[in-house]
Amino acid sequence: MIKKLLSLFVLGGILFSSIYYIANVVKNPLLAAILSVFPISLVSCFLIKEIGILKKYCQNMIIILLLTSFSLLLLILMLNCFKINPKYLIILTIFIWLFMIFIKIQYYD
């Protein structure tokens, strides 16, 4: 079990490093966005062994992706409207996303 978790941890580190490299060094935000969304949501399906849990995971992933899309649209809007440090807007967006996820878990699970 520890070996499996360690290998997944290393794989996640490689993924994050790749996203950083592609976005900041190669300067290709499209490829970085594709890399950040595709493997995490779809490849994770290989990790789920029971079909019932996999179906529920996929249904929940659709909702999470919609909430994430809404959060990203909100971030773009704030970046266009406010001339403050983008890091603050990203942090605010993360808190808004966490709040929406909390509401989903509390009332719609």
Task: Provide the descriptors you would attach to this structure in a database record.
mainly alpha, 109 residues, 4 helices, 2 domains, globular
Task: Write the topology of this structure.
Blueprint: H1 2-24, H2 29-42, H3 51-81, H4 86-107
Helix pairs in contact: 1-2, 3-4
Describe the structure.
- The protein is mostly helical and 109 residues long.
- The protein has two domains: 47 residues; 62 residues, no CATH class.
- Helices cover 83% and strands 0% of the residues.
- The protein contains four helices and no strands.
- Helix 1 runs antiparallel to helix 2.
- It is globular, with a radius of gyration of 16 Å.
- 0% of the residues are buried.
